[in-house]
Amino acid sequence: MSQVFALIDANSFYCSCERVFDPRLNNRPVIVLSNNDGCAVARTPEAKALGIDMGAPFFKIRELCKKENVAVFSSNYTLYGDMSARSNQVYKMFTPDIEVYSIDESFLDFSGFQTRDLAVYGRELRQTVKQWTGLPTCVGIAPTKTLAKLANWTAKHVPDMQGVCDMTDRRKREALMRVIPVSEVWGVGRASTAKLNNMGVKTVWDLAELDPALGRQVLTVVGERLIHELRGTMCIALEQEAPLRKGCAVTRMFGHRITERDEIMEPMSFFAARLAEKLRKYDLGTNSITAFFHSSPHDAGPYHYEQGTVSFPEVTNDSSVLIRAVRRVVEAKYKRGVKYFKGGVMSMDLVGVEKAQRVLFDSLEAPQSESLMTAMDKINRKYGRGALKHATTGTQVKKGWSTQFNYKSPSYTTRMEELPKARA
DNA sequence: TCTGGGGTCCTAGGACCC
DNA sequence: TCTGGGGTCCTAGGACCC
Known about the structure:
The protein is an alpha+beta fold. The chain has helices spanning 13-20, 45-49, 58-67, 77-91, 118-133, 145-157, 170-177, 190-198, 204-209, 212-230, 261-281, 319-333, 369-383; strands at residues 5-10, 30-33, 40-43, 71-73, 98-102, 105-109, 137-142, 164-166, 248-258, 284-295, 305-316, 340-347, 350-352. The strands form 3 sheets. It has a 5-stranded mixed sheet. Strands 9, 10, 11, 12 and 13 form a 5-stranded antiparallel sheet that branches. The chain binds a DNA duplex through helix 3, helix 8, helix 10 and strand 9.
């Protein structure tokens, strides 16, 4: 039995979540901003029509938004995460085998369902999701994940498909692949598009017809795999179990140029504390932490990039330990006179905490560390992030480098105080 | 010291994705 | 062109070992 995958994703997911709880937004252009209200990461078709590009910096489009009555929202991850979980519950009624690929995309295994009309099944799926969550979606169906992605793209861009594109039929598939630009293939970005176009590979079909060995030369094994996937041979399997994440980072612009060492300490310590929180949330620990801070490449004068790594004798996710390490890096690498504008911390060698090797003696962490961290996370979950924190991470409420969420909608589905109100 | 032919680990950088 | 803040995978090159 051959494989069949469906890729379902929500249209302008973040914007659609906002619309579900405020129908007045339905015919208005809506955008949702990235972390820190930096740039537009989700736009409804009405917003796209105004010329607002993916990733457009908010400060550049602020006036346009005001003039055109664009509804602007900060990212409300609590809401989107909950809506995502609800959607996946619905998907599981249509097949038990699903891979949650991102917050708004899931692959569904439809293998063995070929006895039915898959396009009809896809439309049923769409309708059920719409009815139960309020979210509009598109569905692409094909023998490989890469082709399912492509089918999904087609479903979005060809109006008379009614949101569902079934590409399991080879002939139908070929006709579409001959007219879709190669840049729309999953995994083909700007650089690869340029290389391929130079070789005369313009459409998806051209790429599928390319000699895999040549594909490997130009785009490494990733390119070779892509060619096989486009030909209908599965190379990328469904991954139902999310693998443990390998790295974790907290990075941010400082909000203004910083020249004093003590002033850098505060955001950097804060980043370390956030990283530790993230690790604890996922039951992960780390053997090392890397801290970096740098000037702006656009400022006059030479560019400075300072970086340092501290290794630990045992796996840890203790805020105090990580903060101390980061402060040591700043002490050692800071240069007087440089205008630093961005910094961050990261750990790239994460391990699950149960599996962690413990050192018997000379433990880095104070004996009560674990219960202290647990208590701290609990309090912060209840009273909001930053309710309880290390003194070194700053005592003022708002800083340039603290994340901005100035346009956030209520957590409609996860906080009793913020439930939507209905009048009957 | 150089010759041969492996192997591993680590880091940096490129490319892509959401 | 960069603007944000995360992630993943792949390759090349250096250090080191046998």
